[in-house]
Amino acid sequence: MSFDRIASVLDLPGDEEPTREQFEKARHYLYRSMDMLEMLAMESGLPPD
Fold first, then answer.
1. What share of the chain is helix, strand, coil (3-state, %, to 5)?
2. Of 23, 24, 26, nearest to 6 (Cα)?
3. 49 found inside a domain
4. Rounded Cα gap, residues 47 and 42, in angstroms
5. Looking at the 3D structure of the chain, how many domains does it have?
6. Per-10-residue mean pLDDT for the chain, 49 residues long?
7. How many CB atoms lie within 10 A of CB 29?
8. Residue 34 falls inside a structural domain
């Protein structure tokens, strides 16, 4: 999951506000990415912060 993929979910023309569905989808990708990074950090022995 790349940053570009997360950003593209909310890529809206002009000053449009994201729909609830777009917001939820972006939030899902963000939390999933954070979980993956945390898991990789634990596997590599990095401190939790």
1. 65, 0, 35
2. 26
3. no
4. 7
5. 1
6. 59 69 85 90 80
7. 19
8. yes
